[in-house]
């Protein structure tokens, strides 16, 4: 058995390698994997982000077409639905989530990231909450966000802030710092800010990127 310090070194410096080695024989990021998790955690407090909900609500309008990518249990969309938002969409790899959100009146569709299976220029608001750290082809994913966002759209992106690498969360393939996230976003967007916040439900810090898509 490898010493923890050695495993932590690999996780910190070669996170994708650690992710692949630690998940040999384990199917993560599959429909069945997430169906099982979301079925257990559908109404769990660990899936509810009050601070994010308030932030997104304060920066959007009930008439906006809003897409939450890899929306999980749909806690953000369900919050907005209760606040009178009607034009809500969610993508998920999990058929269970798609079915339950559809029953709640939220348009949900399956999408296997990094591809987003939706038309160009469709949404006023795009949310990617705690998902970028799961994606290997991050450049393609960010290009997909730009593609489905309308001109003058707003995007909200959240990732753990210098915590929860693959040694902590086996489905994670990278651990973001503010510098790493800024460098990545700079390749795709010109108008954005990155700040560190905390959600009232969680002790861990979160990087929050507020991205503005330019008008044509």
Automatic annotation (TrEMBL):
From which domain of life does this come?
Bacteria
What molecular function does GO assign, one term? S-adenosylmethionine-dependent methyltransferase activity
Domain Methyltransferase type, chain residue ranges per copy: 67-156
Q: Which CDD domains match?
A: AdoMet_MTases
Q: Which InterPro entries match?
A: Methyltransf_11, SAM-dependent_MTases_sf
Q: Which Gene3D superfamilies does the entry mention?
A: Vaccinia Virus protein VP39
Q: Give the protein's recorded name.
A: Methyltransferase type 11 domain-containing protein
Q: Which organism is it from?
A: Paremcibacter congregatus
């Amino acid at each position: 058995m490898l010493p923890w310090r050695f495993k932590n070194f690999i996780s910190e410096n070669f996170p994708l390698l650690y992710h692949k080695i630690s998940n040999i024989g384990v199917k993560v990021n599959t429909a069945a994997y997430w169906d099982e998790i979301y079925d257990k955690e559908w109404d769990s407090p660990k899936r509810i982000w009050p601070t994010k909900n308030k932030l997104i609500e304060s920066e959007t309008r009930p008439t906006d077409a809003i897409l939450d990518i890899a929306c999980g249990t749909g806690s953000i969309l369900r919050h907005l639905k209760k606040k009178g938002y009607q034009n809500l969409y969610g993508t998920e790899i999990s058929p269970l989530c798609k079915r339950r959100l559809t029953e709640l009146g939220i348009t949900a569709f399956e999408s296997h990231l990094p591809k987003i299976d939706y038309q160009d220029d469709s949404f006023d608001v795009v949310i990617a909450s705690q998902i970028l750290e799961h994606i290997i082809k991050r450049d393609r994913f960010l290009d997909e966000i730009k593609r489905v966002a309308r001109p003058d759209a707003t995007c909200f992106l959240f990732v753990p802030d210098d915590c929860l690498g693959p040694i902590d969360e086996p489905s994670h393939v990278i651990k973001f710092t503010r510098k790493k996230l800024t460098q990545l976003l700079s390749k795709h967007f010109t108008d954005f800010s990155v700040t560190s916040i905390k959600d009232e439900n969680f002790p861990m810090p979160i990087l929050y990127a507020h991205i503005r898509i330019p008008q044509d």
